[in-house]
Amino acid sequence: MPRGAAGADAPPLPKRDAILEAAAKIFMDQGFGPASMDEVARLAGVSKATIYSHFDSKQALFGAIITGRCTAMIPLIEAAALGDQPPADALRTIGRQFLDLLMSQGPLALYRVVLSEAGRFPELGRTFYESGPSLVANALADYLARQHELGVLETPRPRVSAEQFFGMVLGQIHVRLMLGISDAAPDPAERARLVELAVGTFLNGVARR
Amino acid sequence: MPRGAAGADAPPLPKRDAILEAAAKIFMDQGFGPASMDEVARLAGVSKATIYSHFDSKQALFGAIITGRCTAMIPLIEAAALGDQPPADALRTIGRQFLDLLMSQGPLALYRVVLSEAGRFPELGRTFYESGPSLVANALADYLARQHELGVLETPRPRVSAEQFFGMVLGQIHVRLMLGISDAAPDPAERARLVELAVGTFLNGVARR
DNA sequence: GTCTATAGATCGATAGAC
DNA sequence: GTCTATCGATCTATAGAC
User: Fold this and answer.
1) Which end of chain B is less congested by CB atoms within 10 angstroms, N or C?
2) Shortest CB distance from B129 goes to which of A31, A126, A179?
């Protein structure tokens, strides 16, 4: 793997970048098994031998692509700083961001591919989980722990409560989307109503009395 | 497909049954793509030509297997009759059953396979959803609608509330299991605590005041 | 580094004998 | 119905020329 980390901007290895871009598209569209190196070569405009001069194997190329996509999710999630907003505002904000993120094409396709290959590439499952679901749950858990200490909310197990809140917001939407059920995606207005209902029920449920 | 529906008991076609059993094991273990008809034939103790005399194609065999497994989930779910139990009991019961079902090997492997092939076999996604997640959500939604009419709970959108309750119970457990995260499965005592916490928060949240 | 050409293996599906 | 044997297509990976 020459040139481990290139400069900030930099198109220093045009063919290598072309391979990465083509492989990303094909792996994300088709998954590991059905994707063929011939097709990657054709889309990248290089020969198959060139691919194998940059990457050891199909598995290595796949791993590089998917790991990159997983870590690319991290900034999307870390942007959600809850600070010391009132609980209703904080939950509404992060709930809405969470729902929008989970319904967007990129993370959805990435989750699909990682799931399909979690057996063959166990470390990818952990990388995905820690770059996505775990990170967002930790962000909310930190907020809930603070509100618990402040005496505002009754959340003695903040990480569990955080997961339960996100589970509430999501309901079965993600399952329907993953299964390809038609009309599975609620429009923005309905999404707002779902988040509002979840926030209301959750806050009622964990309010200090 | 000879002998559309056999008699009640009946091992009338031993080779056909051997094929179905072997194919079920291999498809559930490996998924559609990686599974090979040679391996099915070997495990079933027949030749490949015999398989093709009973089933038109690999796709047809796969569809028969998966559809059968999906509809086999139905009795497991319809057993959950909530009747007119008090809300805390009803939610505790169905929440615990739901969590145990989602964590068991059979449905977990089936969900994994259906997800992987939802692109190739769109109708399987719908069959799975309607035999499993939708059925269990409807069962709880019916109960919540009744309690709403009785003035016990404030659940004007019972189907949404049902999905939100199940999402709460599950948290990120299913995601971790599907991704192969080690130590993803809570033991029975922790499972009981998680359900208890979800029931408490949810009922507090939707209680009529 | 990059190409063309191909080795070597696997797989779905079928032909033809019994 | 069931078998053996095989076709034809596809795939990963590499050898060898430039």
Assistant:
1) C
2) A179
pTM value > 0.85: yes
- What confidence tens digit (pLDDT) does each residue in A4-43 have? 444 334 456 789 999 999 999 999 999 999 999 999 999 9
Q: Which residues pair with B153 in a beta bridge?
A: B207
How far apart are the CA of A78 and the nearest CA of chain B, in angstroms?
19
Q: Which of B91, B155, B164, B182 to mutate to test the interface with A (most CBs of A within 10 A)?
A: B164
Which residue in the set B34, B157, B164 is minimally distant from A168, CB to CB? B164
Is the distance from CB of A172 to CB of B166 less than 8 angstroms?
A: yes
Structure tokens at A67: 């790991």
Q: What are phi and psi of B15, to 5 degrees?
A: -70, -40
CA gap A81, A24 in Å, rounded:
30
Q: How many residues does chain A have?
A: 209
What does the angle CA B136 – CA B138 – CA B192 come to, to the nearest 5 degrees?
40
Chain segment A188-205, per-residue pLDDT in tens: 999 999 999 999 999 999
- Compute how many other C-beta atoms are within 10 angstroms of the C-beta atom of residue B149: 11
CA distance B14 to B101: 31
Strands (E), chain A: none
What mean pLDDT value characterizes chain B? Answer: 93
Q: Yes or no: say if A119 and A108 are a contact pair by the CB < 8 Å rule.
A: no
Helix (H), strand (E), coil (C) string for chain B: CCCCCCCCCCCCCHHHHHHHHHHHHHHHHHCCCCCCHHHHHHHHCCCHHHHHHHCCCHHHHHHHHHHHHHHHCHHHHHCCCCCCCCHHHHHHHHHHHHHHHHHCHHHHHHHHHHHHCCCCCHHHHHHHHHHCHHHHHHHHHHHHHHHHHCCCECCCCHHHHHHHHHHHHHCCHHHHHHCCCCCCCCCHHHHHHHHHHHHHHHHHHHECC
pLDDT at B44 over 50: yes
When pLDDT is averaged across residues B123-150 and rounded to a whole number, the result is 97
